[in-house]
Amino acid sequence: MNEVVKPVEKKLKGTVTIPGDKSISHRAVLFASLAEGESIITGFLRGDDCLSTIACMRKLGIQIDEEDDRIVVKGKGLNGLTEPSEVLDVGNSGTTIRLLSGVLAGQNFSSVVVGDDSIAKRPMGRVTGPLKMMNASVDGRKNAEYTPFQLRGGNLKGIHYISPVASAQVKSAILLAGLYTPEETKVTEPSKSRDHTERMLESFGVDVSVTDYSAAVKGGQQLKGTSIEVPGDISSATFLLVAGAIVPGSEITLENVGMNPTRTGIIDVLHRMGADLSIDNERKLGGEPTADLTIRYSNLSAMTIDGDLIPRLIDEIPAIAVLASQAQGTTVIRDAQELKVKETNRIDTVVQQLVKLGVDMEATEDGMIIHGKSTIQGGTVQSYHDHRIGMAMALCGLIASSPVRVEDTDAIAVSYPTFFQDLNTLTEG
Ligand code: S3P
Q1: CA–CA separation, 200 vs 309, rounded Å?
Q2: Cα–Cα dist 116/29, whole Å
Q3: What is the torsional sign of CA 97, 393, 424, 286?
Q4: Any idea which architecture 3-20+231-428 has in CATH?
Q5: 22-218 is classed in which CATH architecture?
Q6: N or C terminus of the chain: which is more exposed, having fewer CB within 10 Å?
Q7: Among residues 135, 83, 139, which one has the least CA distance to residue 108?
Q8: pTM of the prediction?
Q9: Which of 21, 89, 195, 315 is catalytic?
């Protein structure tokens, strides 16, 4: 499918409730499957990625009922999964494959895991490597560095893994496998990655010890079924925040935005660039801080984005590149080499497509440099089947001199199936 986004005639106005957080939705279904008894999940994101997690857990013998506004999972405990009779297909979802691998490493049976073309290019050795150190038997393409791979677990041992990357997927996979060991398993990272696993394991009754850059679990702890309310996804909200910040005269409110401090790098960037952003109704939802955000158009200035800030906004960089194109001065994004191993190489895809629309920017080894303020032109751009590239390109259409046609927008359903609907609500004010 293609979508043509026309320049906004007046301004963006109105209120949107942000759909459920993708990272938290995955974890809710996965952990509920491993818990003793029933769990009820509300606010679950019915995006393609999270539906892949549901499909995989069903193939592992878990009953998951999708009702109108809730998901009911009949957990069978840590050792209740059964050997799948089919391959486990994770589709486009890096979170599904990496977290699931941690769980499968603990099982006394064999599973084969595959994904789509994008998954086939993404590094899996960062997870299969440490799982092998824990004694899991993993075999697959290029020594299980890539999909497809096969896992057979059992008899795992605890390790202290010093991860070379700040990755919540890696950390979570190892901690989940750690539940199947008789010892403690600990992960230390170079910077703190998102901590939804640590928070949610606590909600399921598991003790997790957390220090600045480390998290550890003792094996053998049982998860107990519970109720989880999933807050809205700040990564989805980001696209609308940027829309509000760059379309002259706009004022929009986004309700139900998850404000976990490991995810709020975008809020820091908006404030530092001079955006007019207010945070109201701060509360907790499912163990996660949540708030309503209001953004109004204002003049923006460039900044440097690097260091510990990067893991707190890594998924937001495609949208931030569009934001920076409308800021006065030169924005430098560095230390972001992880962008190269996302759904696409997002350094290349962002720069190639934005340059097509007239943005003055260049790629670097570990990020990009954006010279603002650019006049955006209309034209045709690709999403490369990457949801966040598709949404970033759509933002350009709102302020371009003529319509922007975004090709292959189906991918947006991975994380934000109602993106164009919500954008229309705001366009019509
Ligand atoms: C995620 C972690 C991040 C993020 C991804 C979701 C998660 O990936 O980019 O969209 O849910 O744990 P890494 O763990 O590779 O940094």
Answers
A1: 23
A2: 21
A3: positive
A4: Alpha-beta prism (3.65)
A5: Alpha-beta prism (3.65)
A6: N
A7: 83
A8: 0.98
A9: 315
